[in-house]
Amino acid sequence: MPEMRVACVQFQPLRTAVTANVDRMIAFWPDGCVLTVFPELATTGYLFLSPDEIRVYAEPADGPSLSRLIQAAAAKNAYAVVGFAEAKNGRIYNSAALVGPHGVIDVYRKVHLFDRELSVFSPGREAWRVHDVGGLRVGMMICFDWLFPEAARALALAGAELIAHPSNLVLPYCQDAMITRCLENRVYAATANRVGEETDGETSLHFTGKSQIVSPKGERLAQAGAEEDAVVVAEIDPSLAYDKRATPSNHIFAQRVPHLYHALTDDIVPLRSEKPYRLNVAAIVVDRLGRILAGERSDLPGVWQLPQGGIDPGESEEEALRRELAEEIGVAAEEIEIVARSNEVRTYSFPAYLRRMRIAQEWSGQAQRYFVVRLKKGAEPAVEASDGEFCAFRWLAAEELLAQAVHFKRAAYAAAFSEFAHLLRPDPLSDDA
Ligand code: ACM
To answer: Rounded mean pLDDT of 343-354?
Structure first.
């Protein structure tokens, strides 16, 4: 197979200066490379505080920024992977687009959001895909996905020869870790990082540059410096990424034993314990638009869940429900209207990796009675009036809450939302609906 050239563009996007950033990307885009990778959020800059703050700079995949880059791709007869803030169905995603001379080929939405991105972007919930561009099979992942080896593995198993990796790296580990990602998957990776500082007035971040192209043998073929704008280019041979032999007798994919790896794909590896399940009530609080109240855990930012809690001795389920809601969302018992009670008790187990959690020392998991609840007119959840278990509240559609719930509760939530689907729709009698 003929060798081909790929590139990473490293630069400093200016926060909110979308048109100027796209101008610079087009100016940096080198000729003669089948694929050029640009940084994460290259069109908008990185640090935003909320979805509303970035919304004005976010664009759909058919918006002006990608349209301009498609024109450039046509002029160069080349492909690019571009990090951008994507507006889609009212949500904002941290996305990467694969664009070519004829348009957008695919959009990947970042699955593993980093730190404060959790309060800005909706998490992507589509699996990793691979596309043939100019004879090279390319898959995308974004920045912090590097810390989840499953992402690169999934791409390699789907046939990626090169992982295009738009990044805005702040931790010091990724450039070295990507050597291992490449070695363990026998793929190329092109990590296009940004440089410079960014501040939103409250927080400042310094980005680490050192964009790089790594081979399936873990060699750095090209690397930029830590601070300056740069274009790094490398010659690659896709057939090298097809060859999964680490030694003549070790084909690393043929030697895999997937049936021993079920812990990677099962929803949960449960605590193996003889302990009982704790009786508990969970509240699906719905608003007039059919959305569900989710609380963000104070101890686990980015993890959203239903209000819930154990039933105290001598308490009825309904008493426990009203008490828990008063404590956790700060709405008084009389302001709560119970709309439905499930006939089932749904259980979930605690995962083995949480075995030292206090509650897991006593219980195997939770056995939950789900209630559907409405708040009386004027009653609002309030962190200030609550016991502080939650640090924020949001009203989410069922599928959004499922996307942001912790993995070991998801099946129980999905079953409960499905049981009460008829109540999770806009209320036709409501003024708001
Ligand atoms: C990152 O995921 N931008 C660190």
So the answer is: 95
Same domain, 138 and 63: yes
Same domain, 247 and 295: no
Co-location of 249 and 295 in the same domain: no
Strand order through the sheet with 188-192: 130-133, 136-140, 162-166, 188-192, 212-214, 220-223
Domain carrying residue 188: 4-256
| pLDDT at residue 394, as a whole number | 94
Do 304 and 235 reside in the same domain of the chain? Answer: no
**Is 143 in the active site?**
yes
Q: Phi, psi at residue 360, to the nearest 5°?
A: -80, -15
Q: Establish if 271 belongs to a structural domain.
A: no
pTM: 0.93
Residues with C-beta less than 6 Å from any ligand 1 atom: 40, 114, 143-144, 168-170
What are the pLDDT digits (tens) for 185-204? 999 999 999 999 998 878 89
User: What is the radius of gyration, based on Cα positions, of the chain?
Assistant: 24
Question: Which structure tokens are listed for 406?
Answer: 């912790």
Question: Are 200 and 124 members of one domain?
Answer: yes
Strand-pair partners of 251: 245
Which mutation among 84, 114, 119, 165 tests ligand 1's pocket best, with the greatest number of atoms within 8 A of CB? 114
Do residues 168 and 40 lie in contact, with contact meaning Cβ atoms separated by under 8 Å? Answer: yes
- Asked if 271 and 360 touch (Cβ cutoff 8 Å), the reply is yes
